């Protein structure tokens, strides 16, 4: 049975989160984008103040903490975007935040997290267990762990993007195409718009949500997964709370290659004038590669834009 | 006397244009941006469908043409953004459009103009008189010349950006900082928000509006102006209709260097996740260089984002 002992997220929770987020953040634009002659829509979450949709879930979780919990602080594990989301929400609410980040995370993400006032605790990606590092901090401080995707408040917060998109489109989207790490955004969108198809897009070799959907149980990444440029989409496995929402609800998973991702980043640069990081361009990559059906009510999530100048320049000039 | 025999643009004309433009284009986002600790606002005109604010003036001019004028078509002279604005509006209205463009315009702008269905007529930047090329086409075809800035409908159309920003801010902006070529946008903003200060920002050596404001008469660029990376901000001189609006209304002109412009492009990349072309980043460059006073009601115009991948990559990695 795909369940754990935490609260199940609900559509009411998503609607409540959407209200809370609308009170502090303007909606991100829903931009028309024509692909293969079909005019669909791109939700530009790269324009969030921290450059990624993650601020939604973080704000929804942190603003729901009790006074006592706020005083003891929060801990998060993240390669960068959830880090900035939590750090930004914590700063605004005056909550101490410690973020466990891989030592090889993009420098721009490490610096931005520190600049938001959070304490950054580094771990070595292959050698250490980041969850153990976080668990130790949680125990020492009595802090609340804010999981990047396996948390009902976080899922409901991410779902607010779906409520926003529906309002901007003036109708229920036919489908959401979502970049997928652990499945927090995809689960939130599934709850937000019960009639929309949900397509999860993952990097080649890291399609743990797609594989778990197919198997009906949680599949973890193997011991030696391939390299991917999508640093934001590399969780070891999804969580029961995510799979329980997505099971029977999401379409079969879609996988994209690094080359397809780079092509999507170049498309966003030239046609939308947006800076999109590799992991944030996965959904667009699937759309451009013809791997998902498109129509005029399709919403493509552009989830993050935190990338350093050198990698972006190299991507732009790659042959 | 700084007047010519064309109709003077008015605030009522700007309000009318704002209504017409709101009917076809969603507002571009007004994004918070913190500079030297001051939270001001960036109007992201790079997110217009053609990647620049020019679609505003073009739409306002072309949609005001009579049926007979539409049938004979329009002619425009442009290094690229006005070209795309006119081509885009003409396509939507089914009007034939011929655009006179310099042979050395950015390739991306030439291709985009052709892709919108316009006829592109090339001239050699130093050798030929582009206005003569255009005048010949106008005469041959009985077409209407849509001037890039010296036209009351175009000025009123550009001013719609100011009405939009005022609505988004919920109050009158204290000041607009505007990238300035011939002064179409600056004049439109001056009419849109009569209480806002207007700062025109021009590239070093091409500050023809600033010089004309100081002299009280139109000053043309010299025979050998310096090179600038701001290809969108290189008119030979402003026009009487622009200077008559700005005279006594705009602040003294501000000049920015290529290096300041590149720094602004990098700032927009990293902090706003936006692709901004050199000429579109001039106003931000002035703000970042401390050349204009800033407060929480300041609106910085990011006017265009049409740049090719190779130049953008080179800018990102410049030492």
Mean of pLDDT of chain A:
95
Provide the CATH architecture of the largest domain in chain A: 3-Layer(aba) Sandwich
Largest sheet of chain A: 6 strands, mixed
Strand order of the largest sheet of chain A: 1-2-10-7-8-9
Query: For this entry, what is the oligomeric state of its chains?
Result: homodimer
CATH topology of the largest domain in chain A: Rossmann fold
Shape descriptor of chain A = globular
Radius of gyration of chain A: 18 Å
In short:
Two copies of one chain form a homodimer. Chain A is built from 13 helices and ten strands.
Overall description:
The structure is a homodimer of 319-residue chains. Chain A has 319 residues and is α/β, with parallel strands linked by helices. The first copy, chain A, has 2 domains: 11-52 and 151-317, Rossmann fold; 56-146, Rossmann fold, CATH 3.40.50.1100. Helices cover 42% and strands 16% of the residues of chain A. Chain A has 13 helices and 10 strands. A 6-stranded mixed β-sheet of chain A has the order 1-2-10-7-8-9, sandwiched between helices. A 4-stranded parallel β-sheet of chain A has the order 5-4-3-6, with helices on both faces. The radius of gyration of chain A is 18 Å and the shape is globular. The model of chain A has no long low-confidence stretch (mean pLDDT 95). At the A-B interface, α11 and α13 of A face α11 and α13 of B.
């Amino acid at each position: 049975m795909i369940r754990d002992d935490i609260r199940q997220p609900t559509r009411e929770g998503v609607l409540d989160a959407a209200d809370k987020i609308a009170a502090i953040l303007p909606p991100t634009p829903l931009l028309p984008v024509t692909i293969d002659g079909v005019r669909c829509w791109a939700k530009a979450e790269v324009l969030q103040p921290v450059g990624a949709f993650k601020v939604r879930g973080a704000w929804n979780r942190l603003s729901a903490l009790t006074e006592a919990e706020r005083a003891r602080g929060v801990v998060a594990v993240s390669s960068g975007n959830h880090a900035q989301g939590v750090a930004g929400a914590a700063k605004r609410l005056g909550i101490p935040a410690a973020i466990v980040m891989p030592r090889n995370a993009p420098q721009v993400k490490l610096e931005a997290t520190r600049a938001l006032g959070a304490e950054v605790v580094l771990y070595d990606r292959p050698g250490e267990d980041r969850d153990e590092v976080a668990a130790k901090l949680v125990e020492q401080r009595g802090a609340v762990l804010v999981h990047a995707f396996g948390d009902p408040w976080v899922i409901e917060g991410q779902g607010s993007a779906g409520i926003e998109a529906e309002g901007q489109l003036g109708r229920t989207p036919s489908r959401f195409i979502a970049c997928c790490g652990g499945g927090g955004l995809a689960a939130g969108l599934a709850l937000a718009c019960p009639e929309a198809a949900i397509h999860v897009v993952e990097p080649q070799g890291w399609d743990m949500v797609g594989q778990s959907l197919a198997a009906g149980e949680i599949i973890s990444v193997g011991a030696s997964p391939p390299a991917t440029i999508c640093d934001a989409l590399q969780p070891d496995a999804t969580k029961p709370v995510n799979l329980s929402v997505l099971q029977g609800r999401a379409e079969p998973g879609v996988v994209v290659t690094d080359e397809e991702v780079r092509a999507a980043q170049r498309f966003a640069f030239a046609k939308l004038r947006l800076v999109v990081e590799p992991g944030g361009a996965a959904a667009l990559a699937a759309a451009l590669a013809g791997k998902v059906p498109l129509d005029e009510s399709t919403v493509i999530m552009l989830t993050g834009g935190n990338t350093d100048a050198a990698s972006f320049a190299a991507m732009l000039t790659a042959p």
